[in-house]
Amino acid sequence: MTENRVCSILGIKSPIISAAMWGLTNAEMVAAISENGGLGILGPMPGQKFSGNLGEASENMRTQIQRVRTLTDKPFGVNLIPDNSGQNSGISSDLFEAYLNVMIAEKVPVALVVGSLNNKTFFQKLTDHHIKIIYRPNTADPRLIKPAEELGVDLIIATGLDEGGGLPVNDWLAGTFSIVPRFVDEATVPVIAAGGITDVRTATAAVALGAEGLYVGTRFLASDESPIPTDIKQLLVQTNVEDLMYLPDPTSETVRAVKTPSLPDVIAQIQAGELKGTGALLTGMLTGNLNTGMVIADNGISLIKEIQPIQTIMQELATPFS
């Protein structure tokens, strides 16, 4: 069997990478993914701890990194969102720099870079410190592949509109299984498929289209190790794709949310400026308060049938690579 390039580059057993997912990640979930052969990623403000204080936020990231290391000796990564990323990320340039410095000091081996390619000095700094770079454009535009490769990225993610989280906005919205082969045909670095990958069938389809790895978010939220409340995990299991609503969010492009009874009121509050979309997302998914919060998911939600240990989920998703 041909050696998988994603595994070789990252030093992992199975080419499954967890989505960053902001504070929906924590050290325990990230470590479980890495310990079971994949690559766990700490998102911005992990561990459900949010602070407007730069020092507190960066030290929380350091604490989470160190906590991962007490739980596994396997590789893991940290999500970095460069300034001028083209989205309202909520990550200031100062916090971005603080996270970068913590990463370097703690010798984190992998950076998941989401957003702009404009900061060439930043990319050079990562390569100078021998940090592997996974690059995920906000919108899966094939025209970004060559510039990214010229900056030294090691892997690139092709994200289709089947994804969860903030969705791309452009005139040529493409699903995961349309955009993945396009990236595969253009790229020389390995392509990782993202969006709607939640079971062995979707994983196998992505691999058949040329993906050498998988980027998975929603499926890991419905795991034993996920830090979100149990009732929200159960909601994800009970939800089908027809229960989702695609809606504008003035603070983070667009989102795909579960149609809960209180969602119309939450949308009205966002449109009136009484709530921020990102805040509503985190409130719903971290506290379970759906009166002022929402729950988002990807289009593969119908295929999630139960809450399972990450070890079981990893075994299923890794099947096409065995």
UniProtKB/TrEMBL annotation:
CDD domains: NPD_like
Cleavable signal peptide: none
Swiss-Prot/TrEMBL keywords: Flavoprotein, FMN, Oxidoreductase
InterPro entries named among the record's database cross-references: Aldolase_TIM (IPR013785), NMO (IPR004136)
Pfam short name (any one): NMO
Gene3D superfamilies: Aldolase class I (3.20.20.70)
PANTHER family in UniProt: 2-NITROPROPANE DIOXYGENASE, 2-NITROPROPANE DIOXYGENASE-LIKE PROTEIN
Role description: Nitronate monooxygenase that uses molecular oxygen to catalyze the oxidative denitrification of alkyl nitronates. Acts on propionate 3-nitronate (P3N), the presumed physiological substrate. Probably functions in the detoxification of P3N, a metabolic poison produced by plants and fungi as a defense mechanism.
Name the record gives this protein: Probable nitronate monooxygenase
Organism, scientific name: Ligilactobacillus pabuli
Source species taxonomy: Bacteria, Bacillati, Bacillota, Bacilli, Lactobacillales
